[in-house]
Amino acid sequence: MTHLILIRHGETDWNRARRIQGATDIPLNETGRTQARDAGLALRDRLDADTPLLLVSSDLQRAAETADIIGAILERPVAGRYPELRERSYGEAEGVSIDELAERWGRGPDARVPGAETREQLRERALSGLARVIADASADEPSPVVVAVAHGALIREVLAFATDEQLPADGDRLGNGSAQEFSWQDGLLRLLSYSAA
């Protein structure tokens, strides 16, 4: 069994302005760096120093920098950057405000935006990416803890899959720097702890 911890990247200026980022590569702001440090400190307090651990991230800079900050606190290298862990691609909605997205294409994760990745495509990519990460981790350690820094929409899809669409509940927000914990065994994903704002 693999213990999987998914951490949402720290805040960016586009998060603060409530703009859709998607695959647009936006850096962390200072608040985001603080959130990344807080996430790293929380992990350091929870995990035993000699626990086998693999730290990875999406290859977008906001997730990569969050992982770098966490890695410095845990004194662990970032073992890989996985494009499969990127945020949902939002097509024509990238860069627009959340309110404008709702006005033009509808509200919620099922909004139909031209050129956007569907929820189904995102879920398939996320799960195959996590399977790849866990296979890579298990090649070196039999039961490692995998910490993966990723993105809000991707983590929401993993949560929905693991809970048969029960979580996240309507109105639940996954805060920047928040952690969701799962067990992964033989391709089965089970939620262990849930953190929503």
UniProtKB/TrEMBL annotation:
Pfam families reported in the protein's UniProt record: His_Phos_1
Keywords assigned: Hydrolase
Native source organism of the sequence: Microbacterium binotii
PANTHER family per UniProt: FRUCTOSE-2,6-BISPHOSPHATASE TIGAR
Protein's recorded name: Phosphatase PhoE
CDD domains, per database record: HP_PGM_like (cd07067)
Alphabetized InterPro entries for the sequence: His_Pase_superF_clade-1, His_PPase_superfam, PG/BPGM_mutase_AS, Phosphoglycerate_Mutase
SMART domains: PGAM (SM00855)
SUPFAM superfamilies according to UniProt: Phosphoglycerate mutase-like
Hydrolase recorded as keyword: yes
